[in-house]
């Protein structure tokens, strides 16, 4: 890549860099607070509300959450559901998105419209629950994946990306004797790595954040993903559940435990991004075309 | 090295819709049979998990009782809809919802685009990745956390911002309870939490731009800003419009949690939106039919908006979402 | 190849779901075969004698809200099973979203045999379904169970629907609310515990202005309150002012509390506190956690509302920040007319229901009630409330002293605490051994409170409008109350909002309650 070495170019870079650095600082400070909060005592958190560096270090919160295997089990469930769910979702989404991205497909407008329609109209919790129940998915991990297997939003975005691939490439592949599956897997997908990375990330985050499906469809708490644990602790510790009655038998968990669980439940999914990032580099598409 | 062709994102040329004969259509259907096979899993999914459960919308015309089911509940026609429209606060709530949505479109929506362009202009892979990772962090903080951290910063009772104001001789500002500050706080929190995350789609479409285009324009002596304007932006126009149309559909569907956490007795006149109203008037009181009717209303408005904007975008030569 | 892997995936999913379906069937069959023997067993020995071992254990599925960080392990459950000869399946669901789970399970006929609700609001919502006959009536059966029969009749009465009993209740002391305050500050400033509302005001003022923490900076406030009228300071103070508990007779008719002059007096009280800066300025937006944080950081002197028993947890964090802080409790605050009063809850915070969709016949119901009859024995109630003696607690002076290993209790015991029916007077469980003087004082005050307690006359009454619109309407009053306290509404403005409340459905509530009241 050729560097822009003109003076105006340098000023532009400097201003841009400074602005972004400021933005990054603002976005990261509350996160630092959460991490710092997880390593201190609840008393210090209460006294110095916006802790950035703990005065008193304490690992009690982590000791507490790691004192049983619950959190490991929940992380395991979440990682499994996220991996399998993302793979499955990407597969069916890519198939559908590719089909609908082909301009010579009759009826694509109708299909597209019907997909958009589902983003606006929902049957509601109870009818969906009944479908899941009738399919025999209650208490199975599949209940966390199948009911949200395709996100209409993701499908449309992916379709958009597929449409941007020059049609000429597909034509020539066809002449070389590829069928539509061949074109999708040999030409289109390799050319759409940034898009695949993006949509996979979206699916992964959605699966990682699975909460309501778990509550509704899984009666066995041993199968709960990490978000159930996370939300339970955050809501209890934040005292923000307005519907909770005056109930003093059980005091809420420490604020530090809340912070520690946020850290533990967020780190794994945060680590996904840097791995996908290389696909966002410029020219990824053309690079693979040359090969 | 690389032939600079037209940018990959070109205005699509829709295929002619008329068929010379039905046999030609048949031929084409047959030729594309594998494409239809590809649609099968997706179509099945949408039928089973999306369209089939939509029978649940029926309850908005009933006085639904969970133990009587849809078949046993009493029909009441448009009762719940007329209750909504005759609710004394309805217009106020609708206006509040529309204003927040308007802020989402006018203020929030462009920010991820600008941020993505800025990130793209960063030199050096390390910083690029580093900043990208940092700005996308807040998306993983739940609204409960975002709101409680904001509370600690802006409260009158020792919050950093008010302490600073007082230190510099200004009078303290009641951010949390004054109706005037609710909307700025809301949109700032939305920007803080979502802007970085929102850049991802744009960065992906920027990544798909042919670098040759930039090289060619640099040879022509174009500066950085001009490149952004003439190459990058046009290349991501399609995805911007798609995202815009999809966003328009959520016009009355702003989500409940964030606003509810900011809502209090002192700012309700500006902060009550449809979703928070549904929670208090419907869900918390087990009013299934009323809640569903309000949801139905939201969906219809969303549908009208999407169809309108989609039509406009086609008129101006863009593709639209369907 | 891709098609193959897809079909493979689909078929494996299918098999998975079929497998789970088969598992379900097996369980049912097993339960069915076990049932006859078990039910004949109860008919012959309907006593609480735990020695009746040879019977097959009764299988009971229980759904209940989870108020702790995590579902408890089986430690306690296994012990309970041994004593009660049952095989228990506890299904915990987060309290935060318990309504969603409850509603969807109910609508799809999948509630288990024993269904705990979440609080009084969920109970109110279920009443219509209860009247429709979706749940077993247990009133007539209660006399067959000696321990269940001990449940307090006045509280059972509060939980009746149309005069019939369908539920068992989880008991709570009638009036635990009061003041938790900084005794060290009061002593330093020469103040006694406030005997009346005027002294309470003076205390808040002194705590703000006279630098009670002695750091030379005016950085303390009197009262810290939060965004909650009922469980914050407001309702408790209002009852000291003589405001009725939700409803009271006025000119021979039941009228809501906010139509009484004492309600206005209470609002004036808080308005003056706020204007003087003697309480936190953002209280209308302050969550419980934020209020507690202010208190335990040593910045506030008074914490009102909520349970006085919270003093233990407040004290724990406070002394970490302010090592020489001393807390005490207080609740006998006289109103302007010199009278004491204390609002009371209806004596329960949650109830248990038995859905007909899961409990097939009366014999099965009796089996389940037998389990709850066991739960009303000291043996089982102590086990579920305190844990295993020697492991989770020890008995000192006839009271339970929880182990210092708080983690262990948090993990293994707490989850079951909120499911113990009755209260210590009826189920015979230990009271807690208290060390903190303020806590010991609190326990005395809880008993004192009841002597001047004011009950809610509508606790056992029904109003269809209240059930369907009560929450929404109450918001009008809540908003007006806060606006008044912040000086944005005057008395006329407040009364206009009360009229607004009436015209939007409040008038119906008044009418319906009065109709039920005179019945």
UniProtKB/TrEMBL annotation, chain A:
The chain crosses the membrane at residues 12-32, 71-98, 110-129, 141-162, 183-208, 257-276. It is a multi-pass membrane protein. Keywords: Cell membrane, Membrane, Transmembrane, Transmembrane helix, Transport. CDD domains: TM_PBP2. Gene3D superfamilies: MetI-like. Pfam families: BPD_transp_1 (PF00528). Its main location: membrane. It is found in: Cell membrane. Residues 75-276 form the ABC transmembrane type-1 domain. PANTHER family: ABC TRANSPORTER PERMEASE PROTEIN MG189-RELATED-RELATED, POLYGALACTURONAN_RHAMNOGALACTURONAN TRANSPORT SYSTEM PERMEASE PROTEIN YTCP. Belongs to the binding-protein-dependent transport system permease family. This is Carbohydrate ABC transporter permease. It comes from Paenibacillus tritici.
Automatic annotation (TrEMBL), chain B:
It comes from the Bacteria. Belongs to the binding-protein-dependent transport system permease family. This is Sugar ABC transporter permease. It is found in: Cell membrane; Membrane. The keyword Cell wall biogenesis/degradation does not apply. It is a multi-pass membrane protein. It comes from Paenibacillus tritici. Keywords: Membrane, Transmembrane, Transmembrane helix, Transport. PROSITE patterns: ABC_TM1. Residues 94-309 form the ABC transmembrane type-1 domain. The chain crosses the membrane at residues 34-52, 93-119, 140-170, 190-214, 235-256, 288-309. InterPro entries: MetI-like, MetI-like_sf. PANTHER family: POLYGALACTURONAN_RHAMNOGALACTURONAN TRANSPORT SYSTEM PERMEASE PROTEIN YTEP, PROTEIN LPLB.
TrEMBL record, chain C:
Residues 30-55 are annotated as: Disordered. Residues 40-51 have a biased composition (Low complexity). The keyword Membrane applies. It comes from the Bacteria. The keyword Signal applies. Keywords: Cell membrane, Lipoprotein, Membrane, Palmitate, Signal. This is Extracellular solute-binding protein. InterPro entries: Bact_solute-bd_prot1, SBP. Residues 1-23 form the signal peptide. It comes from Paenibacillus tritici.
């Amino acid at each position: 890549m050729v560097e822009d070495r003109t003076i105006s170019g340098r000023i532009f870079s400097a201003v841009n860099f400074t602005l972004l650095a400021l933005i990054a600082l603002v976005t990261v400070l509350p996160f630092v607070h959460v991490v710092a909060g997880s390593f201190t005592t609840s008393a210090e958190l209460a006294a110095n509300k916006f802790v950035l560096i703990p005065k008193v270090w304490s690992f009690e919160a982590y000791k507490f959450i790691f004192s049983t295997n619950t959190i490991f089990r929940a992380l395991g469930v979440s990682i499994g559901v996220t991996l399998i769910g993302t793979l499955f979702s990407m597969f069916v989404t890519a198939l559908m998105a590719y089909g609908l991205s082909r301009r010579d497909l009759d009826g694509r407008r109708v299909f597209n419209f019907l997909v958009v329609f589902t983003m606006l109209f929902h049957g509601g919790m109870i009818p969906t629950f009944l479908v899941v129940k009738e399919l025999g998915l209650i208490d199975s991990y599949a209940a966390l994946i199948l009911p949200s297997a395709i996100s209409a939003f993701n499908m449309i975005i992916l379709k958009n990306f597929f449409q941007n691939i020059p049609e000429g490439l597909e034509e020539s592949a066809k002449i070389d004797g590829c069928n539509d599956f061949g074109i999708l897997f040999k030409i289109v997908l390799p050319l759409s790595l940034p898009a695949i990375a993006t949509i996979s990330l979206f699916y992964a985050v959605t699966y990682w954040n699975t909460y309501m499906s778990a509550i509704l469809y899984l009666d066995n708490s041993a199968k709960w993903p990490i978000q159930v644990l996370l939300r339970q602790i955050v809501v209890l510790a934040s005292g923000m559940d307005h519907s909770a009655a005056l109930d003093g038998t059980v005091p809420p968990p420490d604020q530090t435990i809340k912070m520690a669980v946020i850290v533990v439940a967020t780190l794994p999914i945060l680590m996904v991004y840097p791995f996908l990032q290389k696909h966002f580099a410029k020219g990824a598409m053309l690079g693979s075309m040359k090969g | 090295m690389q032939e600079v062709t037209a940018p990959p994102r070109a205005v699509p040329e829709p295929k002619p819709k008329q068929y010379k004969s039905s046999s030609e259509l048949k031929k084409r259907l047959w030729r594309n049979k594998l494409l239809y096979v590809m649609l099968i899993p997706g179509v099945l999914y949408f039928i089973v998990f999306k369209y089939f459960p939509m029978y649940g919308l029926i309850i908005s015309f009933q006085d639904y009782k969970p133990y009587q089911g849809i078949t046993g509940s009493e029909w009441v026609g448009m009762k719940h809809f007329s209750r909504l429209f005759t609710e004394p606060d309805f217009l106020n709530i609708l206006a509040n919802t529309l204003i927040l949505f308007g802020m989402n479109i006018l203020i929030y929506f462009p920010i991820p685009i600008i941020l993505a362009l800025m990130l793209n202009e960063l030199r050096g892979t390390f910083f690029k990745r580093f900043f990208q990772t940092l700005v996308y962090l807040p998306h993983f903080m739940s609204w409960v956390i975002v709101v409680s951290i904001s509370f600690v910063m802006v409260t009158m009772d020792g919050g950093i911002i008010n302490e600073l104001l007082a230190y510099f001789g200004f009078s303290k500002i009641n951010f949390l309870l004054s109706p005037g500050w609710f909307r700025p706080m809301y949109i700032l929190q939305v920007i803080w939490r979502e802007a970085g995350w929102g850049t991802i789609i744009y960065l992906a479409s920027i990544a798909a731009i042919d670098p040759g285009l930039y090289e060619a324009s640099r040879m022509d002596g174009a500066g950085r800003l001009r490149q952004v304007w003439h190459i990058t932006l046009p290349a991501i126009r399609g995805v911007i419009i798609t995202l815009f149309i999809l966003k328009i559909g959520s016009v009355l569907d702003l989500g409940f949690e964030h606003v509810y956490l900011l809502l209090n007795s002192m700012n309700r006149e500006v902060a009550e939106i449809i979703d928070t109203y549904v929670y208090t008037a419907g869900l918390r009181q087990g009013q299934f039919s009323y809640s569903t009717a309000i949801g139905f209303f939201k969906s219809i408005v969303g549908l009208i908006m999407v169809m309108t904007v989609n039509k406009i975008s086609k008129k101006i030569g863009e593709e639209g979402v369907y | 190849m891709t098609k193959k892997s897809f079909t493979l995936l689909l078929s494996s999913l299918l098999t998975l779901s079929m497998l789970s379906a088969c598992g379900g069937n097996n369980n049912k069959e097993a339960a069915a075969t076990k049932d006859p023997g078990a039910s004949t067993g109860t008919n012959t020995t309907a006593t609480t004698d735990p020695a009746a071992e040879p019977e097959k254990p009764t299988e009971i599925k229980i759904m209940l809200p989870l108020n702790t960080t995590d579902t408890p392990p089986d430690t306690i459950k296994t012990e309970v099973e041994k004593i009660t000869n049952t095989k228990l399946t506890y299904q915990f669901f987060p309290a935060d979203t318990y309504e969603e789970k409850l509603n969807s399970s109910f609508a799809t006929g999948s509630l288990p045999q024993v269904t705990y609700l979440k609080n009084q609001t969920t109970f109110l919502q279920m009443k219509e379904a209860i009247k429709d006959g979706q749940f077993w009536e247990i009133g007539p059966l209660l006399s067959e169970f000696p321990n269940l029969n001990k449940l307090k009749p006045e509280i059972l009465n509060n939980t009746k629907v149309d005069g019939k009993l369908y539920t068992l209740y989880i008991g709570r002391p009638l009036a635990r609310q009061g003041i938790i305050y900084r005794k060290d500050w009061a002593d330093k400033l020469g103040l006694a515990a406030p005997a009346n509302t005027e002294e309470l005001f003076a205390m808040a003022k002194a705590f703000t202005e006279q630098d009670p923490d002695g750091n030379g900076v005016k950085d303390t406030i009197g009262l810290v309150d939060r965004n909650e009228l009922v469980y914050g300071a407001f309702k408790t103070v209002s009852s000291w002012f003589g405001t009725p508990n939700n409803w009271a007779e006025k000119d021979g008719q039941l009228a809501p509390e906010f139509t009484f002059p004492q309600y206005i007096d209470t609002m004036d009280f808080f308005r003056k506190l706020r204007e003087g800066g003697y309480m936190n300025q953002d209280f209308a937006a302050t969550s419980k956690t934020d209020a507690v944080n202010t208190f335990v950081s040593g910045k506030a002197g008074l914490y009102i509302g909520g349970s006085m028993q919270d003093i233990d947890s407040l004290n724990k964090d406070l002394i970490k920040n302010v090592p020489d802080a001393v807390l005490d409790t207080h609740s006998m605050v006289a109103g302007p007319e010199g009278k004491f009063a204390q609002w009371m809850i209806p004596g329960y915070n949650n109830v248990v229901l038995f859905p007909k969709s899961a409990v097939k016949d009366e014999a099965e119901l009796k089996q389940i009630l037998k389990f709850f009859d066991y739960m009303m024995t000291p043996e089982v109630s102590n086990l579920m409330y305190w844990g295993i003696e020697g492991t989770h607690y020890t008995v000192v002076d006839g009271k339970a002293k929880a182990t210092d290993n708080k983690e262990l209790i948090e993990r293994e015991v707490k989850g079951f605490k909120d499911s113990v029916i009755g209260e210590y007077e009826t189920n015979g469980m230990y009271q807690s051994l208290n060390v903190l003087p303020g806590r010991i004082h609190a326990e005395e005050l809880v008993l004192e409170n009841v002597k001047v307690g004011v009950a809610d006359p509508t606790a056992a009454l029904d109003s269809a409008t209240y059930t369907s619109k009560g929450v929404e309407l109450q918001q009008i009053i809540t908003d007006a109350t806060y606006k008044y306290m912040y000086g944005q509404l005057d008395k006329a403005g407040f009364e206009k909002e009360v009229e607004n409340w009436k015209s939007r459905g409040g008038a119906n509530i008044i009418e319906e309650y009065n109709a039920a009241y005179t019945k």
